[in-house]
């Protein structure tokens, strides 16, 4: 796992063994004004975190971020109480990770919504995709079925409609009349590998960051969901910490006008800031989502 220079000095030895228990910040007693947060190493995560860090400092808080490149450790260390919070995932991924790994992390509030769709460097429309086209999908279960659902909605294949999109997989395909071949890859590589396939499911942010012209490569974007929680990017904490002073302080800065302004300017607004979910209302939606 890789950490940035700013985070490495204080936690390198702990990170090497993936325990991080030496930081001791999440378990500090009364009067603790230090918040530890583990964040993925990418602009929509790092930059808002740095804004939050400056704003919290003005209120007497010390935000200590650790920036990492993997999407496994952040839930583990929060579940174990070694960090106060993480910021790197959508709620669908969090649900699946908890189920697969026995971790216990809950979303506290939303920060942005991650639009996604089917993209291609070779074809101009979904109808142009040839027989047997190779189409890449994220390998993680939470995002794997999103591309399948887009194709099914466009009539290019059929899936079991009783399966929620966040649980949909190739096993749920009931008819593949065009004999599409689906290639599962790491979600972080979906935009960078578009040149290797006929089309692929990816996230708008990653496609733009890979220097592709969004207008030229977009075949179809996902429709907006009635409930946007599954694919909203959230800050995760231990269950029961949603109402803590630290979490409330994090929400105030991550859902601030300053962070919203940053998202409005980033990649010409292709990533949508959202404060729809807060510590006051997210629990009900999360409970319904995890009960599916």
Automatic annotation (TrEMBL):
<keyword id="KW-0564">Palmitate</keyword>
<dbReference type="InterPro" id="IPR004872">
    <property type="entry name" value="Lipoprotein_NlpA"/>
</dbReference>
<keyword id="KW-0472">Membrane</keyword>
<keyword id="KW-0449">Lipoprotein</keyword>
<keyword id="KW-0732">Signal</keyword>
<comment type="similarity">
    <text>Belongs to the NlpA lipoprotein family.</text>
</comment>
<dbReference type="Pfam" id="PF03180">
    <property type="entry name" value="Lipoprotein_9"/>
</dbReference>
<feature type="signal peptide">
    <location>
        <begin position="1"/>
        <end position="28"/>
    </location>
</feature>
<protein>
    <submittedName>
        <fullName>Methionine ABC transporter substrate-binding lipoprotein MetQ</fullName>
    </submittedName>
</protein>
């Amino acid at each position: 796992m890789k950490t940035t220079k700013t985070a490495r000095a204080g936690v390198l030895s702990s990170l090497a063994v993936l325990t991080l228990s030496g930081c001791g910040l999440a378990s500090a007693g009364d009067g603790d004004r230090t918040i530890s947060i583990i964040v993925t190493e990418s602009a929509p995560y790092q930059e808002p975190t740095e804004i939050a860090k400056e704003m919290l400092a003005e209120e007497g808080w010390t935000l200590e971020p650790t920036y990492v490149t993997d999407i496994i450790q952040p839930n583990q260390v929060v579940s174990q109480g070694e960090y106060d919070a993480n910021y790197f995932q959508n709620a669908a991924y969090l649900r699946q990770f908890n189920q697969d790994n026995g971790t216990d992390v809950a979303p506290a509030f939303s920060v942005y919504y991650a639009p996604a769709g089917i993209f291609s460097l070779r074809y101009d429309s979904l109808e142009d995709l040839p027989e047997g086209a190779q189409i890449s999908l994220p390998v993680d279960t939470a995002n794997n079925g999103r591309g399948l659902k887009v194709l099914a909605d466009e009539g290019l294949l059929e899936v079991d409609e009783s399966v929620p999109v966040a649980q949909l997989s190739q096993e749920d395909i009931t008819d593949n009349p065009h004999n599409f071949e689906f290639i599962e890859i790491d979600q972080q590589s979906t935009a960078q590998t578009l040149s290797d396939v006929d089309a692929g499911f990816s996230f708008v942010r990653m496609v733009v960051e890979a220097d592709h012209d969004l207008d030229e490569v977009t075949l179809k974007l996902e429709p907006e969901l009635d409930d946007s929680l599954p694919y909203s990017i959230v800050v995760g904490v231990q269950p029961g910490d949603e109402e803590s002073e630290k979490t409330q302080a994090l929400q105030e800065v991550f859902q601030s006008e300053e962070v919203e302004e940053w998202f409005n300017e980033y990649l010409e607004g292709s990533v949508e800031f959202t404060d729809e979910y807060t510590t006051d209302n997210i629990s009900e939606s999360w409970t319904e989502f995890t009960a599916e």
